[in-house]
Amino acid sequence: MSGRRTAGARPRGEANICTADYAELIALWHGGAAGPARRLGAVLARLSAVLFAEPNPAVIKAVLYARGRIPAPAVRLPLLAASGDVVRRALEVVRAPVHRGQEGALM
Prior knowledge:
Elements: H1 19-30, H2 34-51, H3 58-66, H4 84-95
Helix pairs in contact: 1-2, 2-4, 3-4
Pfam family, one: DHDPS
Organism: Streptomyces ficellus
Keywords: Lyase
């Protein structure tokens, strides 16, 4: 399977963490604003790196739970819960002031 999305394809897990920022990235790129898109893309790449530091979807579910977006961070066996250290790092990236200079810009 290629890395290209097809019609009806599900978005990647990290887009559930900061949906507006992924939408902005796409809008910037399609609008020809390559510089701002690359800067935002670099921030989102750091987020992706920490979200996938442990088996998917453990870290994503833990971050969604910590932010009150889902009722529990549980994953099914054979997966194990995400480690606290990785979840803390992911939450730091999500909460860091970024591209717009606003506190908590990644939402």
